[in-house]
Amino acid sequence: MKTLTILLLSALIGLCACMGAFETTVNKADSPSDAGVFVEREEASIVVRQKRATAAADLSLAQLESLREVCEANLDCENMMDTSGIIAAYTKHYGPIPF
User: Fold this and answer.
1) Where are the alpha helices (DSSP H) in the chain?
2) Which positions fall inside the Gla domain (predicted)?
3) Between residues 8 and 67, which one has the greater pLDDT?
4) pTM of the predicted structure, to 2 decimals
């Protein structure tokens, strides 16, 4: 009977130790040291919007129209241009913008 009690107690201690180790692993993702890896959705969308706005602001209207004319020749590019914008569509189908 003593052996069974010791075995059960050991199993309980082992289970508690494993649960404590699991909680420590899960809570490490919330620690401030990992703040650079995980970003809130609002912060990420602000950064992405800034990059898009900067890329569009660097091109003149004539350059954007030139990209639009090239993209209109390709049906897939034209459809993407309507949903994602001219810069994203041109970059995906033709590579980096030449100017």
Assistant:
1) 2-27, 41-58, 61-72, 75-84, 86-94
2) 49-95
3) 67
4) 0.45
